[in-house]
Amino acid sequence: MRSAHTVEQVRAAEADLMARVPEGTLMQRAATGLAVAISNFLGGTYGARVVLLIGSGDNGGDALYAGARLARRGAQVTAVLLSDKAHRAGAEALRTAGGRLVTSTPLTGPSADPSATADPSATTAPTAVADLIRSADVVVDGIVGIGGRPGLRPKALAVVQLAERFGVPIVAVDTPSGVDVDTGETPEPHVNAALTITFGTHKICHFIDPAATACGPVHLIDIGLDLPPAEVESLQTSDIARLYPVPHGESDKYSRGVLGLMVGSTQYPGAAVIATSGALGGPVGMVRYVGPDAVAEAVRAAHPEIVAGEGRVQAWAIGSGLGDELDIPRIRELLDAEEPVVLDADGLKALDDSGDHFDVLATPHAGELARLLDVDRATVEAERLKHARLAAERYDVTVLLKGSTTVIASPDGQVRVNTNATPWLATAGAGDVLAGLCGSLLAAGLTPLDAGSVGAYLHAAAANLASSSGPITAMSVAAALPEATRYLLGG
Ligand SMILES: NC(=O)C1=CN([C@@H]2O[C@H](COP(=O)(O)OP(=O)(O)OC[C@H]3O[C@@H](n4cnc5c(N)ncnc54)[C@H](O)[C@@H]3O)[C@@H](O)[C@H]2O)[C@@H](O)CC1
Ligand SMILES: [K+]
Questions:
Q1: Which of 25, 322, 347, 421 is deepest in the core (most CB within 10 A)?
Q2: Which residue, by CA, sits nearest to atom 44 of ligand 1?
Q3: Do 436 and 392 contact (CB within 8 A), yes or no?
């Protein structure tokens, strides 16, 4: 499990450790790891041109000390000081190691001619900032870390925009400056990093979009923090192997779980076929299909294994492709019954906030979640963690908010995030596969939180396998589920 902690939790753990180790130890651990990571990113250090963007705090200190290490190994390192309060000892270390320090002047923004954006007479080095950035191999963002508020001040923004304009990759120290660290929101301009190097633990912005996308790949460096339980978690391969309901010698089709599927309609028969494919690609022993005869025939033609008609089930998956044939009173009966339910797409219209639905896993996309919360879609997209949590609390369900990163929030406050999806997964029917798969996992006995997070992980893993960086169909994702599962279970 990867863990993301809040700024407050990180600060407390840092304070606790700092009281026990010599002064400066943590920053040296961070800077050492950072220097190695930058060197790996560059594929070598000697002769590399490195520009550090330095703000007023310890985030800049990390960058300066890492820059000193790189300079000692032959890199040409220049620090652009964006504040007159840059980390003093770090700046001295860089100077001693042969690096240069440049005081940035007010830059006039992206529309100006880059060669005119720095006034050489006001810098402590002869080279204008724009020229420096243009010829850099990498720009290191030490503007702000966990002490930062969203947004970039004008000087920082102008330099960051120069790097973007010249196509120079930015490596972010701890967090891409400008993002909201504790929510993953990006209400203001921010750095878009090619790589983020973080320390001690992940922060929430590393997991939650839109900030997660701004981080690029995130590399974690251990600095020895002793941390409390995490606010947000993200499953890894070993967690899938631990949580997946693998059948054993005594298992039969009933004990493995029977899933009832109430999906698809005469209007959308394909949704039934696709969701069934997703369910059969999961751990369930048997699938019962409940729906119009013509649709049941289509499902049976694709999957002769299914049984049509009502009967005893251990869980339901309801809603994908029901269209106008939605029977809200019947769905509410099932929501109130004992068996856990995956509630998807049109089925979400049956959700009300009066009942106790802790065994329901609701799987909305941003638009559907927006309707449930009576806000607009853009608001949900911008504040994904907040709205997933809000809906989980209001409807007393576990909410799986679909998207490039999937957020799964349970009503007791636990949050998991899935970040392994491929953008190719944004294809018609992919949600039906996920609903069937999550239903399969629920029927096999997982909790809604585990079913949602394992389901999202496997769904993305199957999509990656089917895609190999090319287009996929929902059916090809479902077809890849057994192989992806076998691989993740170590088979
Ligand atoms: N505390 C420690 O022991 C460690 C801290 N580390 C580093 O220290 C960082 C935190 O350092 P700080 O607490 O000094 O804070 P930062 O360096 O993140 O921010 C410094 C200051 O910048 C100002 N600021 C806030 N938002 C801004 C914005 N949008 N634009 C410009 N300036 C803004 C604030 O006054 C803030 O206190 C971590 O992210 C990490 O990189 C690491 O060295 C590991 C150990
Ligand atoms: K940063």
A1: 347
A2: 27
A3: no
Distance 276 CA to ligand 1 centre (A): 50
Check whether 62 is labelled as a binding-site residue: yes
**What is the CB neighbour count within 10 angstroms for residue 358?**
15
pLDDT tens column, 394-437 = 999 999 999 989 999 999 999 999 998 889 998 999 999 999 99
Annotated binding-site residue? 61:
yes
CB 407, CB 209: distance < 8 Å:
no
The pLDDT score that the predictor gives to residue 412 is: 94
Taking the C-alpha atoms of residue 349 and residue 344, their distance in angstroms, rounded to an integer, is 9
Rounded distance from Cα 74 to ligand 1 centre (Å): 28
The rounded Cα 47 to chain-centroid distance in angstroms is: 35
Q: How many angstroms separate the alpha carbon of residue 113 from the centre of ligand 2?
A: 26
43 is in an annotated binding site: no
Counting from 1 in the atom list of ligand 1, the atom nearest the Cα of 146 is 39
Give the residue, by CA position, lying nearest to ligand 1 atom 42.
27
**Structural domains of the chain, ranges and CATH numbers in brackets:** 2-234 (3.40.50.10260), 237-488 (3.40.1190.20)
How far apart (Å, rounded) are the C-alpha atoms in residues 201 and 223?
9
Stretch 110-129: mean pLDDT, rounded?
Answer: 41
For 266-287, what is each residue's pLDDT tens digit? Answer: 999 999 999 999 999 999 999 9
Where are any strands of DSSP class E within 421-478? none
Quick one: which atom of ligand 1 is closest to the CA of 82?
Answer: 31
DSSP for 203-218 reads EGGGTSTTHHHHH-SE
91: its two tokens? 């700046």
Q: Are 63 and 52 in contact (CB under 8 A)?
A: yes
Dist. CA 245–CA 53, nearest whole Å:
49
